[in-house]
Design brief:
This protein is α/β, with parallel strands linked by helices and 419 residues long. Strands 1-3-4-5-2-6 form a 6-stranded mixed sheet, with helices on both faces. The longest helix has 39 residues. The chain is elongated and about 75 Å long.
Length: 419
């Protein structure tokens, strides 16, 4: 077996738990593959190393590891997950849940570079809060994160809290609503009083459920009082700690609400690079070659981050339960079970003939025959034959159309002559 000595050394490092030696042996194997010309396999190893290194990069485990912990003194009592949160008097339902620092994600969600910079800038403000204060400035104490469902808004908010070393008080504002007069405002007051008492980040989910209602023509003074209570509590909260609000419907928010948030982060649907980063985050230990990765990133082009995660989970289940399937057959079955997540044209191509899919990948994605062969699990000569057959068929169809057009013109000319 070629490179067996490297594979043996890598296996030994893995079994002994020697991560440093394991990475060294992977680097040796990658160099050997590149020397041999197996660039695609070398690229797979490179992606694997990047995925393993991600949790300790400045985009994941601890952005603050290379800097100091927050320089701002957060006031309040220490908050643990065992702390009793306030409850609704009428229903006895808890108004929030407490997430300890250990429960918070260590990896930043896949973001566009501009948004990554904005998120890191927020943390940097708190790290260097005292430097800002010497200039008469304060770090941002409120942040609104908005965008389509499933784009990672909650994960980003929780990651920010973890980087600051703060537990989270997570409240869904729609759960504070009550049909009893005055109860909703009282619930809001109780929630903020609890948050202001503790050293924690207050995370308000489903924020538009209350903040959108003040201008509703179908509502009366009670709703306006609820929104005014929320705005007043947000203002008071600035003296005690950080608040992040999340909404899927930014267009529904009251203009006065927008003014309460110093930082406003929009979470977009992932672009091509973002989809690849999300796939690399969720795929391990499943491995794909370059062609399969490009095919999969195209299949999920209209998906949010959470939808991509669901598709990847389905693929992994298929690998475990039906190991004999080809990658395309696996994708076809996954697509059939995720009709609402994947676009209709993508599902139609996956369900159709492989020849048509191959040609579409070369024309739409501009993939080479070699990449398409990898993606579909066939040899390159088969892809070349399919492409030639498709071109021949199209040429014949074009020829038929031309001949039909000529016959039509000739027939019209004869009719004109006879007349």
């Amino acid at each position: 077996m070629e490179h067996f000595s490297l594979v043996y050394a890598l296996s030994k490092a893995a079994l002994s738990g020697d991560v440093k030696d394991g990475k060294h042996q992977v680097a040796r194997l990658k160099a050997a593959l590149e020397k041999r010309g197996s660039l695609d396999n070398a690229e797979m190893l490179e992606r694997l190393v990047s995925a393993v290194n991600a949790p300790v990069s400045n985009k994941s485990a601890s952005f603050l590891q290379s800097e100091a912990r927050p320089g701002f003194d957060f006031s309040g009592e220490t908050l643990t997950s065992s702390k009793h949160v306030p409850v609704d008097r009428e229903t006895s339902a808890p108004m929030a849940q407490v997430l300890s620092i250990e429960d918070l994600p260590r990896q930043m969600p896949a973001l566009p570079s501009s948004l990554t910079g904005a998120a890191e800038a927020m943390i940097r403000e708190w790290v260097h809060a005292k430097s800002l204060q010497r200039l008469g400035l304060e770090p941002a104490k409120t942040c609104l994160i908005y965008g389509p469902p499933g784009t990672g808004k909650t994960q980003l908010a929780l990651w920010l809290a973890g980087q600051l070393g703060l537990p989270v008080i997570l409240a869904k504002l729609d759960g504070l609503m009550s049909s009893y007069l005055g109860t909703t405002s009282r619930n809001i007051g109780s929630l903020f009083a609890f948050a202001n008492k503790h050293r924690a980040l207050l995370l308000l989910d489903e924020f538009d459920s209350i903040a959108k209602l003040r201008d509703d023509p179908n509502e009366v003074g009670e709703i306006k009082r609820v929104v005014n209570t929320l705005l007043q509590e947000l203002d008071r909260r600035r003296e005690h700690g950080l608040t992040i609000a999340i909404t899927n419907h930014p267009g529904l928010l009251d203009p006065a609400v927008w003014r309460r948030f110093e930082a406003q982060l929009e979470m977009p649907m992932p672009d091509v690079a973002g989809r690849v980063r999300i796939l690399e985050q969720y795929l391990p230990p499943m491995q794909l070659d370059a062609g399969q990765m490009q095919l999969l990133s195209w299949v999920v082009e209209d998906c949010s981050g959470s939808e991509i995660e669901d598709v990847v989970k389905a693929l992994k289940k298929s690998v475990a339960l039906e190991p004999g399937l080809t990658f395309v057959d696996r994708l076809q079955r996954v697509a059939a079970g995720h009709g609402d997540r994947l676009s209709e044209p993508v599902r139609a191509l996956l369900a159709g003939e492989r020849e048509e899919l191959a040609v579409q990948l070369m024309t739409t994605l501009n993939l080479s025959q070699a990449r398409v062969a990898e993606a579909l699990g066939v040899n390159r000569s088969t892809i070349n034959r399919w492409q030639n057959e498709k071109q021949t068929t199209r040429g014949a169809l074009d020829g038929d159309k031309t001949a039909s057009s000529v016959r039509g013109k000739s027939h019209s000319a004869k009719e004109a002559t006879s007349r």
